[in-house]
């Protein structure tokens, strides 16, 4: 790879990291505030570039009704969408006693399977602690595989196993460290679950076994099976907690929109009913007071829409990055040349 290609790759990686940080890590209310502040600054600044003065437009229209009346219908429609979202989320929680019992049994069966696989007496009930124990179990299985290869004479095979175990262990340690104080309901649990690339590790383990079938002993084959079996449990666990997180976020989104909608409707009503071309004469910082007021009103009017956008952006980004469950890798950044 040339220096220019390497520089371009590093730049793309930095931009991708910044984009993910904005889409996933930034607090939703902070991101909402930033977007609204940018819109407000653009509206106020635009009044200084020589276009028709806002006060003259408002005087000709006898008020701001033409400008803000559309927000009334939009906000009410958005509130109706909130009700629909809540119904969608709640419908998944409703069911007859038989369905609820089946859900309970399925959850218990999966938990017992995990406990048997990682040799745990009872797995923790908290999602972060459960994932911590599962990742630790994967790390333990990988270490057992490496120990099995200590007397291996095939140096190439031994080197591949060593590199695989080192990668798995380092990844596990990083994820475990971040999961220790993570609390479900925040994004940290899902973020750290996304950082453990179990699909890559399943592929690597199967590739090592396929490439060295004749060299691997029966015991080593068994250890690789244990590693793969434990890794396979991480996918359903992550998907289950991802589903719960989506429901949690949709409920938070619904509440946020309901909280914002009534103040936004009230602000729109005030602007429509009491503001005309004669309101707030004078300037502040060289800008007509009516521009400040109308810009603030517009920002308040679009605030429910912006909140909706920032929440859905994170949900959609997570969904896109976890479309394939199991040994499938969709993102180019996680592919190696030998996968082409």
From TrEMBL:
Keywords: Membrane, Transmembrane, Transmembrane helix. The chain crosses the membrane at residues 29-46, 66-85, 256-275, 290-313. It comes from the Archaea. This is DUF4239 domain-containing protein.
